[in-house]
Design brief:
Blueprint: H1 3-31, H2 36-48, H3 50-65, H4 75-103, E1 105-109, E2 116-119, E3 125-128, E4 133-139, E5 142-155, E6 163-168, E7 171-175, E8 179-185, E9 188-195, E10 197-202, E11 209-213, E12 216-220, E13 229-230, H5 233-236, E14 243-250, H6 251-261, E15 266-268, E16 277-283, H7 287-298, E17 300-304, E18 309-313
Parallel strand pairs: 5-6, 15-18
Antiparallel strand pairs: 1-4, 2-3, 3-5, 4-5, 5-8, 6-7, 7-10, 8-9, 9-12, 10-11, 12-13, 14-16, 17-18
Length: 315
């Protein structure tokens, strides 16, 4: 896609989101069903940018123009009538933006050793780890992420009228204003919540569901949700700083993690080495340093073959 086309789409998406936000806030205020927290969030949104105030003012002007309607019933019924008309007008204004949003989809992929950060218009941050493929869709009032493979972490800025959903494997994750990490390896997905809460639900007839809160994690597959366990927050998101932190981690899993970051793979030449446990903090980018640390720790030798590095016990 050409740069000018990308800029045009981004500009349209930003304007569409602003239109939706202004309309949603206006209806919330007029219907009087906003909580104190919603009011504070609205005031914060209003003062963030002059474009927010200008967009909101358009809906205020539409509402004021309804005062000239020749309705003579009671005040309460007149207000209901005005709200009904306002809903209709606002729906017409906003519906034109939804066509763009339902058509928008972006594929994000990182190669081995590459990481990428996405910042959405509302301030939500998505960090994408190495060897990851995900799709981002903006569907009406829903922000949707589909993780095909790999790992990503999310710092979601909560919006009262716009949901954030992550699909990975056979599960759906619904954010409730939070920070969480998702790893997909084949049929298994691990969800770790650092702050806030995330609803994890399987996409099958049984629809098993669990709620995760800050400091909790679980793993699910096509038909099973694991028990909830505690999160080691430091090691879970160490990758965002190019670190690998292992705590009594089996050596075969350590090798898997190393190979996620480097094109030339490392292999274990003996099956009995797989169960050895590794603990420590390592630089994910330093392949030679990682291999040397393992050689010293377990008294191993390395052999450079045509396409890989083999680790063996010293004879």
């Amino acid at each position: 896609m050409e740069q000018s086309q990308q800029e045009q789409i981004k500009k349209s998406l930003d304007q569409n989101l602003l239109t939706e936000q202004a309309a949603a806030w206006f209806l919330c205020i007029q219907q009087g069903n906003c909580s104190d927290a919603d009011i504070k969030a609205f005031e914060s949104w209003l003062t963030e940018d002059e474009s927010h105030r200008n967009e909101y003012q358009q809906y205020v002007q539409i509402w004021q123009s309804l005062d000239h309607l020749d309705h003579k019933p009671s005040r309460s019924s007149r207000k209901k009538s005005r709200l009904t008309i306002a809903w209709a007008i606002l729906l017409m204004l906003v519906s034109g933006t939804l066509h763009w949003l339902t058509q928008y989809e972006e594929l994000i992929s990182t190669s081995i050793g590459e990481q990428h950060q996405i910042v959405l218009q509302n301030g939500t941050i998505i960090d994408v780890n190495t060897d990851t493929v995900l799709r981002m869709e903006l569907l009406g009032l829903t922000r949707k992420i589909i993780i095909e493979q790999g790992e990503a972490s999310f710092k979601v800025r909560n919006e009262p009228f716009r949901s954030f959903v992550v699909h990975s494997g056979n599960g759906t994750l619904r954010d409730i204003g939070t920070e969480f990490n998702v790893v997909r390896r084949g049929d298994k997905t691990t969800v770790a919540v650092l702050e806030g809460a995330v609803e994890v639900k399987l996409n099958n007839p049984a629809g098993a569901m669990k709620m995760l809160h800050g400091g909790q994690q679980l793993t699910y597959s096509s038909h099973d949700l694991s028990d909830i366990s505690a999160v080691d927050a430091e090691s879970t998101v160490a990758w965002r700083k190019s670190r690998l932190i292992f705590r009594d981690t089996p050596l075969d899993e350590v090798i898997h993690q190393i190979n996620r970051y480097h094109l030339r793979p490392v292999r274990l030449g003996e099956s009995q080495l797989k169960a050895l446990k590794v603990s420590g903090d390592f630089n994910a980018a330093d392949r030679a340093g990682l291999i040397q640390a393992l050689k010293v720790l377990f008294i191993l030798q390395s052999i450079e073959l045509d396409e890989e590095t083999m680790l063996l016990s010293e004879r």
